[in-house]
Amino acid sequence: MTARLDKRAARLAITRFGAEVTRVRAVLLEALRRVRQGQEVDLVACLVQAQVITAEQAAVLREELDRTQIDPHSLLRSGKDGKTGDGEAVSAKPTVNGPTSHPAPSVEARPRPYRRLRDLGKGGMGEVYLAYDEKGERLVAIKLLWPHLAGNPNLVERFKREAEHSIKMKHPNIVRGFDWGQMPDTQRWYLAMEYVDGPSVQTLLDRRSRLDIGDAVRITLDIAHALEYAHSHNIVHRDIKPENILVTRSGVAKLADMGLSKATDQVSNLTHTRQGFGTPYYMPYEQAMNAKSADGRSDIYALGATLYHMVTGQPPFQGKDPVEILEKKEAGIYPPACVLNPEVPEELERILEKMLARDRRDRYQTASELIVDLQRSNLAAPVLSFVDPELAMQDPIVRKRAATENQATVPDLSAQRKAAQPTRRIAVSDVWIVREPDGRGGYRQFKAGTAQILSRIRQGTLSSEAQISSSPESDFCSLWDVAVFREALASAKKAAPAVHEGSGEATVSTDSSALWKRILLVAAGTVVVAAVVLSVLLLVAR
Prior knowledge:
By secondary structure, the protein is of the alpha+beta class. The protein is built from 19 helices and 15 strands. Helix content is 41%, strand content 14%. The longest helix is centred in the last third of the chain and has 32 residues, at 510-541. It is elongated.
């Protein structure tokens, strides 16, 4: 190897100028390949040529090479996607617009042993900057809580909760925390966490309006795996939304911001600040009413709302304020995804409807069930369409999941238990036009999916006299004419009491009233027939 290929330059480009690990390593590997072919290579010049660093930075870097004592082989021990030797990914939360009046902490105020490189963003609770962890030899994102918030116990508790849970969670689809505490000089709370080198899903939606079906399902699958892991450790996230999903440059989605998460076996005091925290567009109705009641199925709902947004370009429930949004969630009626995006296939529509069911009992009960259905749909893209495929396939996580998807899906034991029972699937569209009496002699009309109609039948909020049509051009038919709805109506009828008590008097059920009406009609018809026969007999007698 020639003397000019000084691999310390690669490490210095990262630690001194904050260059991206994956780009630096790609240049280094190419330089090594050329050296093995007998070429003389100047690594600093290669970094400039690849636009990893500028010419001015290269001059500074050359001056520092003789003074720097860094293990040149440590970078080569990193993973091909910028992962360190212990398998930790590098990733960065995109910036969030927020207050800019707060002065940046001085170099002396930084939490040691982290060397500050550049700002990543600022928000309502604090700021985030990129740093080099001198002890761990890796890039990290440092989150600092604003000094004036240190006296707010609820916000400090949220910050500590995020730190504790992110450090506890060690999963490739969860942004991991490494270290947290208070800086000795300023007493500012800090959290050192995994640096993600790509955008958030919200940023992608801002750029693209909506994502390809394959990309959206792939991201959803990654986050479903993260939820499966978190829920198995009794952690509920409670704030799944596009902004809290980050995507690495190799195309791996990661769940971020554990600030609103809770341990299911602990009592949360954060709900004192507001009854149902989270983001109204994505959180389920039961969480809006009482955040303490949120469980794993609430996270599945929020992930469903995020998936809906990714494939349609908008959240499922729209409104001018949170109250209007929650009123629509209470009704549980939203436009089917295929209405807003005709490319949404029927299988994905079915999955969305189950994820977004109004009643949590009608949703996927575990993230594992959701993962099985998403995998069986075969809709997830092997590699995200907007990432470099060569870079993606260097990532061991991407390679592993691509290889796994070529294998048979793990059998769903619950499905095997149900196999003995006959199942019925409707052969028409899963999107219906519903028409039901409005109580004033007219009808109200709306669109709903099969799962939504079933949920309303079980809740008793849809009249059994409602009619449905598969398209504007088709005729309306009774709910009883479709097998899946007929079964639900029959079950609801059995579950409903025949007599309801209220205001001190018994009220005959609708079914009983209909029976009496039929009896009276038969009796009236009998009287008419008897009258006609009597008239004929009188005429004959004359």
